[in-house]
Structure prediction request, 174 residues.
Amino acid sequence: MKTIKDYIRTIPDFPQPGVQFRDITTLLQDADGLQLAVDTMLDLVKDLDYDVICGAESRGFLFGAPMAYRQHKPFVLIRKKGKLPGRTVSQSYDLEYGSTEIEMHEDSFPAGSKVLLVDDLIATGGTTEAMIKLVEKLGGKVAGVCVLIELPDLKGREKIAGYRLDSAVSYEGE
Prediction:
């Protein structure tokens, strides 16, 4: 039986020398791989109490939407600034070279909602930390974070200490 890692292609030296890029397109292109990923992520959070799933643009949509569908939960988009048509709240965060902003609609969920954040990957934790701040600005409570891939060597887990983080696969030291 194949594992999730068997479906993920590693591309050395992309986008720059020394980086081992974890390419999920090979997982998405295989129905068994995609199903295994979604099922595994759902299994990781089966004991978690949450009302809504939020996914980060764009790869968080790929896993968050089918998870929400399977759990009959609402799915909320977290998008890059300027991509949502309604009234939004935003959160800026730093990137390796500069900064950016993400947004959600002001009416994404009722205040007090328990939110599961979903993304494809956590590396340094900057995007995840911004997602947490954004949910909390709207009065939501982050119930947990679920990602397909964790790169522990980049210490993203430390940046979101105090929040539950579940990952389907880890590439520690790889």
User: Anything to note?
Assistant: The two ends are 22 Å apart (CA to CA).
